[in-house]
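Q: Here's a chain of 478 amino acids. Please give me its 3D structure as tokens.
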Amino acid sequence: MAVKRTIEREIKLRAGNGFRLPRGLGEPVATRRFSSTYHDTSDHRLATSGFTLRYRNERGSGAWQLKLPRESDRLELELPGSPDLVPARFGDLLAATTRGRPLGPVATLETVRQGVVVREQGRALAEVVVDEVQVRGNRAAVSRLDELEVELVDGDRGSLERIEQALRAAGAVDADQRPKLLQALGLVRPERRRPKRSDAPIDHLIWMLDAQYRAIIVNDPGTRLGEDAEALHQHRVAIRRLRAMLRAARPLLDRGWVDEVRGELAWAGRALGTVRDLDVLLEHLRADADALGAAERAAFETLTGDIGQRRDRARRSMLSDLRSTRYVRLLERLENELHDPPRSSEGDVSLEQIAGKEYRRVRRKVRKLGDDPTDDALHDVRRAAKRARYAAELAERMRGRPATRFVAAAKKLQDVLGEHQDGAVAEGVLDALAADADGRAVYVAGMLAERQRERRRDARAAFPRAWRRLRKSGRKAW
């Protein structure tokens, strides 16, 4: 069954006293009346994690809608179905949040929507709507909601800003930015208080660990959906960052607990890693192939067909791992234990000391590189720089601007060495593909392999400068 997809970009306002839609703002649209029955777990895990699941019924026709966060926007998915049964596809996308807890109706919102379509040169830029909402449900905190929304149709962020200015000039004011369901139920998303600079190191650590857990949960549905490589990337980054932060913070925590959790995070990272690595490989190869002629392009497609098949197999394996009991248990453990991890009995160590130790590890590895380091040695430096960056992020709030500069320099070094590593991996894959190819495909593989060698040479040339910048910021920070 096909899933309808929409990227939702909107601004939420509230009609202040005396507000009227500006005359001539747009063409009036027909008044709509619809009901939306929101579904969630009994403890509202979806709503408090930023997800919306509802069944919308309008004029006797209904469909399930699922909204997922995507950077500053939201992805809305829609599937037809019975109002009595959540589609299995949506249930799977939300499994990391629900983790076996049943979903059921928690509130019904009945909406009367009026508004206008804003056009420019015959093109619909956005729709401006005023919603009058009646809330039905035993646990409703309010009986009525009113909202003013501007939703992009075929405009851009500039269009949104211009329309917002016109509405504010007409009396619109700031609105409650919570989703309607949270407003209806009187709920707020739990947000851990960002520690003050003077707070204890363990408080800063816990805040950062919690942020990584939340990133895992937010990006998990996008990983399962498989349409946005960035979701998988951010999912994997959160797992790796969490693992690295636990490693760096071992002096503050019980080492046995840290080793257990890091072992499970390593497994989860590997589950995502193969697909992500193949995504990166295909992205680079396709970018290099854009300049090929038609005949070479056809030969390129035969070369990369095998990589695509490998990615498909890896994705099936990844989804199996994400649906496993092991993954669910890991998420349960993170949720239950990261907010109060078992502490070390060895005494306090400052986060600045931890970050400085990780930086000195990088420095020692660079000193051992020599004049012509191997690909593996440079990759090892990259991994160490990444760990130093994550440790610096732990101390950033306490150390201030010197740590922020160090983080930026470490990221730059990561990027340079990441480009080198990607080129080395791509070159190896192309050499292996060429060995099994013939004719024009061998020629194309050779052309692309040379491009990877150029990438590696460029990265090696950029490395000294990136390292000098990191070394300078490291001296000042730690």
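Q: Can you summarize the key feature?
A: The two ends are 56 Å apart (CA to CA).
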